[in-house]
Specification:
The complex is a heterodimer of chains A (112) and B (108). By secondary structure, chain A is mainly beta. Chain A is built from no helices and 11 strands. In chain A, a hairpin with a 6-residue loop joins strand 4 (31-37) and strand 5. Classes of the chains: A mainly beta (112), B mainly beta (108).
Chain lengths: 112, 108
């Protein structure tokens, strides 16, 4: 079984809809991250969380919100989706004191 | 200007060739990562470097801190090495800054 899972894997939605992307991990890591990937751009950090009570904005948090429901779960919400949020979204985890991040399989989101 | 620059953006090779992918950065860093993104989208970490050189199988990663430069080498390349290779650096924070990736295609 995958250590970091994301649901859904693909989603097509319409402008203005509220969307939630979910990430779960069984690695026991305390740190979790949400990134988006666009063609020709590097991965960009949306939000990150170093533990359940710690949520921080990344470089492109506008239009997004997150919830860390438990150590193992970190959800990303698009309150009112817009077409330029069409992208590949990745969740990642890491253990405090270490550098390596472990990525989920990605969610391909299309906003029409 | 991006803080992390990779070259080339695209690379094609014949099976068996020696491959070099370069990463230059413009900021002080505490570590540099090389990651591989498979055609299906999944991302895996290959190396983390803070100095010197690391080797894993046919992959070798080097870093020159003074020159702010790292290279990823693939010896005896194989079609299964076809992927996007991503360089990422950690500044003196806990966040990574990613390059835009190098797309490698290895043909039989």
């Amino acid at each position: 079984d995958a250590d970091v899972t994301q649901t859904p894997r693909n989603r097509i939605t319409k402008t203005g809809k509220r969307i939630m992307l979910e990430c779960s991990q069984t690695k026991g890591h305390d740190r979790m991250y949400w990134y988006r990937q666009d063609p020709g751009l590097g991965l960009r950090l949306i939000y990150y969380s170093f533990d359940v009570k710690d949520i921080n904005k990344g470089e492109i948090s506008d239009g997004y919100s997150v919830s860390r429901q438990a150590q193992a779960k970190f959800s990303l919400s698009l309150e009112s989706a817009i077409p330029n949020q069409t992208a590949l979204y990745f969740c990642a985890t890491s253990l405090a004191g270490t550098d390596t991040q472990y990525f989920g399989p990605g969610t391909r989101l299309t906003v029409l | 200007k991006n803080e992390v620059e990779q070259s080339p953006q695209n690379l094609t090779a014949q099976e068996g060739e020696f491959i070099t992918i370069n990463c230059s950065y413009s900021v002080g860093i505490s570590a540099l990562h090389w990651l591989q993104q498979h055609p299906g989208g999944g991302i895996v970490s290959l190396f983390m470097l803070s100095s010197g050189k690391k080797k894993h199988g046919r992959l070798i990663a080097t870093i020159n801190i003074q020159e702010k430069h790292s290279s990823l080498h693939i010896t005896a390349s194989h079609p299964r090495d076809s992927a996007v290779y991503i360089c990422a650096v950690r500044k003196n924070t806990d966040k990574l800054i990613f390059g835009t990736g190098t797309r490698l295609q290895v043909f039989p």
